[in-house]
Structure formats: C-alpha cells, structure tokens
Amino acid sequence: MGPQPAGVALDLLDDHLRRGDSEFVAQFGAVLLRRYGAGGGEHRYLFERLLWRLATTPGRENVGHALRLGLAALGEGPRPERRAAAVLAEYQSVRDLGPVFAPGRSGGGADELRACLIHELALRGGSAEGLPEAVAWAGASPYWQEHPLSWLPWTLAPQEVRPVVPHYFVGGMTFGSRYTLPEGAPLPSRAAGDVPLVTANRLDFALEAAVDRWSRRHNGRVESGIHLTDAPVGPDTVHPVLLSLSLDCLAELAGPDRLTVFTTTPAEAWSVLFAAASLGGGHSNDWWYGAYGRLAAWRSVAALVGAPDGAAPAEVEQLAGACTWYGFSASTHWFNYADMDIGLLVLSPDGRRLAVLAATDYNGG
Fold first, then answer.
1. Lowest model confidence (mean pLDDT) among 114-118, 173-177, 238-242, 298-302
2. Helices and strands: H and E segment counts in the chain
3. Beta carbons of 115 and 287 less than 8 angstroms apart
4. Alpha-carbon separation of residue 309 from 305, 306, 312, 313 (angstroms)
C-alpha cells in the first residue's frame, strides 16, 4: 500500500515550513477551508494537522496565519479558544504573540482567546506585560475590562507555585496531575483538654468554585461549609473539632484514628485547587483549562479564608498567609483514592472560623 494522500500532503507542507515558507502552507489551508469547509473526512483531517503545524511552529508569522485560518474558533469541544490559548502559550514566545492582540481582529472568539492567553502565559512562567500589543488591547478593550479574568494578576503570585499545566501534542495531551495534598505528620486525634464547641454552621457555595463540575461527574461528590466555634481551635483540637462537624464525607468513619489531619500551606492548597479546576471533573471537552482554572482556584481560596467581596488578589493572598491550613484524609467510602481527592480545612487567624472543603472526583459506575 502506497502513502496516503493526506500524509503526502503533510510531508510537502512540512518541507515548506522547514524552509520558512509558511505563506504557502497558509494559502494551502485557505484553499482547503474554502473548498471543503469544516466537514469531516480526510480533508478535515488534513486541515486540522496543517493548522496545528502553523500554531506550534515558532514564529510571529505562523501565529498570524493560524489565527486567520480560524484557530480560535475551530477544534474539538465547546471551548476552542481556551485550548488555542494554551497551545500558543506552550509553543510560542511572548514576543511572537503580537498578532493575537492586533487591532481590528474580532469575532471567532478573538477577545476570549486574548483574555485566556494572558493567563496561560502566566501559568507557564511568562508574562504578557512584556507584549506592547497586549497591554494596549487591555487598556482599550471594554471586553477585557468587564471580563472576570481581568481580576487576576498578569504574573504568578508567590502562592501559585508548581501549577500543573498539560503538554499538548497533535491529537492529544499529557499531564501529571496533583491528585491530593501531600500528607505531613499527623496531628493528635485526641485532645488533652477541652474541645471547642461548634456554635454555628452555614453553607457558602463559593468555597466550591474549584470543584464546581465534580458533583456533576458520575459519582463525584463535594461537601463544604463554614463553622464557628466558641473558643479558638488549635493544632491539638482541630482533629476532634473536625470529627464533631458530622460531615457526610466522614460519616462511615470506623474510628478517630481512621481520620488523618495534617498541616499544609496556602501554596500546596492552591496547587491542588488549580489542578482540580483546570483538569479535574470530566473529560477534556469539559475542562476549564488554565486561565479559568486559575480564576476558580483563587475564588475558592478567597472563600476559604473569608476575604471580603471585591478584595484584590494581593489582599486574598495576605489573608491566606494569616490563616492556618490543614489537609485531611479518611478511610471512608465517600473518598475513593482512585482519581482526585481533596480534604481542606482553613482556620481563621483568631482560630474560631473553620472553612471545610471536601471533594472526590470519581468517574466510576
């Protein structure tokens, strides 16, 4: 059997790209799109591979060609502009991304691509602050000024360490997810003195921003709440206080020793929340990707630490540093330890407000 027509064509196009003739590749793609549209079959396959090669071959002109061929509007799933932003941030340098923010480009998800790209760059250690076109667009764009992503800083905050971002390749992606918090030394399960009493409980679904989709995924489960105590909770009493909350996730606990509570940090918690929001909770077509995953993780952190409405990210981070952070895990059927599991407890600076978030991401029967 001889070589397939699409394979032959891709080899020819690769030769042109290696010689720096991306104009030929772009014109070829434009003819394909004009003649065959976005239908299926071999022509669709060829066009998608061609578009991928342009988007992932470094160079400002390649970025421009990919955009003109509809990179932000074409692709699998309901959010092609989010995936396009992630791919461009991975493969292109900041200086070559100017065409994304070029004046006059609109429609086809162009503004949404720009908004996402700013944060996909940040998550990979870059910054759109060094791109004059991006700065000019953000300063003049009503779309950006009203966009929820504009609340976030353009560079990573100190607590945003080790963000898990995927590696994209033709036809797929790979990633190493943070499945749960790393366990430290366990805190005592029995208090030496009196245990503070819980005096009030309330729901706050803002705690669940990072795991919003999990409860809609087969057997995924989420539980959260704010709890107030009559006296400060310390390291020696946090374990029994957590047990006293009558949480569903701990309902089948065989005994206190089957619950492990350990100290953690805002950075460790943010890392897990970001992975949960950007990559957890469903197959790739349902993912939020990096930019919105970053926003959701910040929103969960803000709710966990009790930040006031309208607080800036720096204020949220300062408050997070003043709180005490704990992780917990338990041997119950609620958690499954097969996918992602989260157990977080955040104690206010005065020790009397406990915010609890538990979630398990399970895609079983």
1. 173-177
2. 12, 8
3. no
4. 12, 9, 9, 11
The distance from CA 97 to its chain's CA centroid, rounded to whole angstroms, is: 22
Tell me the C-alpha distance between 214 and 217, whole Å: 5
Which pLDDT does position 2 carry in this prediction? 42
**59, 96 contact by CB (below 8 A):** yes
pLDDT digits (tens, 9 = 90+) for 195-227: 999 999 999 999 999 998 887 665 688 999 999
Distant-in-sequence, close-in-space partners of 316: CB < 8 Å, separation ≥ 6: 298, 301, 302, 305, 307
* pTM, 2 dp: 0.92
Q: Identify the CA nearest to 233 among candidates 224, 220, 223, 242.
A: 242
Widest CA span of the chain, in angstroms? 80
Describe the crossing of helices 41-56 and 60-68 by its angle, rounded to 10 degrees.
Answer: 150
- The pair of structure tokens assigned to 80 is 């092609």
CB 156 within 8 A of CB 274: no
Report residue 148 as tokens: 């929820």
Q: Residue 98 above 90 pLDDT?
A: yes
Q: Which residues contact 58 (CB under 8 A, 6 or more apart)?
A: 91, 92, 93, 96
- Closest by Cα among 202, 210, 243 to 361: 210
Q: Is the pLDDT of residue 189 over 60?
A: yes
Helix (H) or strand (E) holding 328: strand 324-330
Residue 169 CA from chain centroid, whole number:
19
Q: In angstroms, rounded to a whole number, what is the distance separating the alpha carbons of residues 105 and 129?
A: 20
Q: What is the mean pLDDT of residues 260-274?
A: 95
What percent of the chain is modeled with pLDDT above 70?
89
